Amino acid sequence: MKSVLQTCSLTKKYGKEKAVNKVSLNIEKGDIYGLIGKNGAGKTTIMKMICGLASQSQGDIKLFGSSDLKKGRKRIGATIEQPALYPNMTAKENLIYYNKLLGITDYSNAQEILSLVGLEDTGKKKTKSFSMGMKQRLSIAISLIGNPDFLILDEPTNGLDPLGIKQIRELLLKLNYENEITILISSHILGELDKIATRYGVIKNGELIDELSAYELEKSCEKCISLVVNDSEKAVSIIKNIIKSNDYEVLENGVINIYDFLDIPEEINKALVENSVLVSNLTLKNNDIESYFIKMMGED
């Protein structure tokens, strides 16, 4: 896959304090990359540095495989900390205004973009009368001016009701699938990202503590019997040939997760012990995604 964004040891200092510390992200073409972390973790600062709205103290950024950031940033659309919407203008007038700011003199794209985000029927309605969800979609519409290949969205579902969140989610999936736009989206609520994100970066206190695929996250949260044994190789042979499990995972330090046969933990333990495998721990794990995130953040 082609690289859209690479950061290497990206760091931002304010005085002696590091708001972002040695963050190395990798985003490939077609990704919907969820940047997840608590409020104040450094997500917005990372996005600002990528977009050129803040300078990095250390580290490197590559866009579309190149260090020519001026050229690469022309292919980015971004909504960071909510762009100003002019309350006495219509959605189309707002788009035309931002076209002018970017030096675009052909405004024929305005109606097309409004249709793309589902605001084509707002007509003469002023944005001061828009719902929060409509305002968020208009903000995304503004970021689509210039037909970007890479969209950066800072907490676009923040403050929305469940319907508004669903509408934004469907819009982002449409932009990704139909318009082939790679997306970087931040949130402090993992449950808002897990229905759309293909990859994740987890930020804690300005540091990237994990980067994983949606499949890896799903596996981490999947219900399983987790064993700690003294002989992984022998245990695997028993799990395959005696228990007949086809869905297991061998980890470090003697940990084995079994994803089938969840209703017979006693028999699994008995089979291992009878074949001279010491089981020092056996637990039934059932993490949901929010619980996994809380654990990653080191919270109770």
UniProtKB/TrEMBL annotation:
Keywords: ATP-binding, Nucleotide-binding, Transport. Residues 5-230 form the ABC transporter domain. It comes from the Bacteria. SUPFAM superfamilies: P-loop containing nucleoside triphosphate hydrolases (SSF52540). InterPro entries: AAA+_ATPase, ABC_transporter-like_ATP-bd, P-loop_NTPase. Transmembrane segments: none annotated. One of its GO terms (molecular function) is ATP binding. Belongs to the ABC transporter superfamily. PANTHER family: ABC TRANSPORTER, ATP-BINDING PROTEIN (PTHR43335). This is ABC transporter ATP-binding protein.
